Amino acid sequence: MALSSGVVPLGLLALFLLSAPFASASWGPLDSLTCVPATTTVMERSEGRSRCAYDSRLGYRAIGVGYNLDDKSDERMREISTITQTDYGKLYCGEECLNDVQVNALLAFDARRYLLRAKERIENFNSFCCNVQSIFADVAFTHAKSRLGEQFSPSIDRALSSQYKEAAEELRRSEWCREHEKVCAADTRAMEEGCPTASMSSSRKAGSWLPANSLTCVPATTTVMERSEGRSRCAYDSRLGFRAIGVGYNLDDKSDERMREIATILADYEKLYRGEACLNDLQINTLLALDARRYLLRAGESVKTLDNFCCNVQAVFADVAFTHAKTRLGAQFDQTIQKASSFQWREAAEELRQSKWCRKNEAACKVDAQQLEEGCASVGDSAVLAFLDSLRGLMAA
């Protein structure tokens, strides 16, 4: 029988995917990660959900949300063995089923798979917001072909010209639509909505732009945190005095939030704490991604301009929060924050080197200060702000 566990929010699955080997650096997060939550929602709307194997309407044996069990590619076999740790044959025959955690994880993998498949067919796919990307991914999912055919060309051309109502109408004329009437009706309604824009000013009025520091910069932050702390599959006594596992994941903090996180990765807290059980890399990476988001948010409580920074700089402040091990960055960092807020990266780095934290964390401080000196020069401050503004619109859509 499948292990019992609560349902994992799709946003959490996005964090889970951040740690996988396929997380991309160059605009990859938009199509391989950022739009995964939206795509999972659309796919489940189209297919429904089953914890046990079933015969899909497309003719293959499936489980979860249309996850193809007849496709025995190495990629899918790795996904099944990693996520379910259940005998494939028993899943296929219906002798064993999945829990919601496992269904959601396989769904997230599939969402990325069909986003990439849609991207192979659509030039400038990354220019679409998640609303439109998820529709084309759902078409690829329900079309069940290795590539979107010519029947979709008129709809694609209209969408690339931001003519979303016309794109929806062209999609309604396709053979695919006649074969999938209910799916087509929902997808074309969503297509008509297109990608409504959101200005920076309106985003700021709505409050802190969470996707920037709770998701987009997580990959960069996990790299910096592991550079500072190292990695251990089994529990250890951290240099900060608490019991830890993975990359400094605090086992002495028994908050409800952390207990839920540990339960989500299907681990026994007591056995982990005593060292009787250890984690695999997938579980470590998931906890690390959750911690990265946690410390980005913590840094954002002290650094009010954090959302204006590129990920290179956000990751530094998150690492300081991580290694500082306090609930809030103290007054010793005020000058660093002030200089960084004015995009004075070298001066900010020098102020960081003068802090008490730096004297206690020499190795971490050395590399963090070097990274802070680099700032966002690779794209320029104005370009960073323009990029953040455009991404706000994409994430809000």
Q: Can you give a write-up of this model?
A:
The protein is mainly alpha-helical. It folds into two domains: 10-196, Lysozyme, CATH 1.10.530; 205-396, Orthogonal Bundle (Lysozyme), CATH 1.10.530.40. The chain has 23 helices and six strands. It has helices at 10-18, 28-34, 36-47, 74-83, 88-93, 100-121, 130-143, 153-160, 164-172, 175-179, 181-193, 200-205, 210-216, 218-229, 256-264, 269-274, 281-302, 311-324, 334-341, 345-353, 356-360, 362-374, 381-396; strands spanning 50-55, 61-64, 67-68, 232-237, 243-246, 249-250. The protein has a three-stranded antiparallel sheet with strand order 1-2-3. Helix 1 (10-18) packs across helix 6 (100-121), helix 1 packs across helix 17 (281-302) and helix 3 crosses helix 6 (100-121). The radius of gyration is 23 Å and the shape is flat.
How do the strands and helices of this protein lay out in sequence?
Elements lengths: L9 H9 L9 H7 L1 H12 L2 E6 L5 E4 L2 E2 L5 H10 L4 H6 L6 H22 L8 H14 L9 H8 L3 H9 L2 H5 L1 H13 L6 H6 L4 H7 L1 H12 L2 E6 L5 E4 L2 E2 L5 H9 L4 H6 L6 H22 L8 H14 L9 H8 L3 H9 L2 H5 L1 H13 L6 H16 L1
Antiparallel strand pairs: 1-2, 2-3, 4-5, 5-6
Helix pairs in contact: 1-6, 1-17, 3-6, 3-7, 6-7, 7-11, 8-9, 9-11, 13-17, 14-17, 14-18, 17-18, 18-22, 19-20, 20-22
